[in-house]
Prior knowledge:
elongated
Amino acid sequence: MSAVIGILVGLLVLVRVIGRQVTGSLVTQKSLFLMPVILLGVGLFSLSSSVHNATSGQLAFLVLDCVVLAGFGVARGASVRLSPTDQGLFQKGTAATLVLWLVTIALRVGTSFASAALWPHNTFGTSTLALTIGVTLAAQSAMIYRRALAMNVPFATERV
């Protein structure tokens, strides 16, 4: 996947996800896990073609990036307002959620530039975009899922 296409897909995913969180949406198990699983799969596939060219420094950088992004995902998941409705669980992001998203995006852009500056002749950094977005979304979804179970409120049903 070219870097431009990867960035455009990443932006599209983020706009869709952030838009749904700002406006609010019903929480289904599918909505929590489908997008992160797809992104993690695409990210691992993309990474598999470039990992053999990666240095140990790049791999360590990726692991650190994923750990930090997972932390921001957990924080965003904790900041989302969950409420029961007749149709099931409803989620709506707060101002803190939006700020955490902006910091997450700024951090991801910053790490992309840092990776390109540290390893200018290697495409490994661009191949990690889908994986890192998947990691942060998976962490957020896991936190929302855990909170939903603790609330003992049923998830919304899937639309047919």
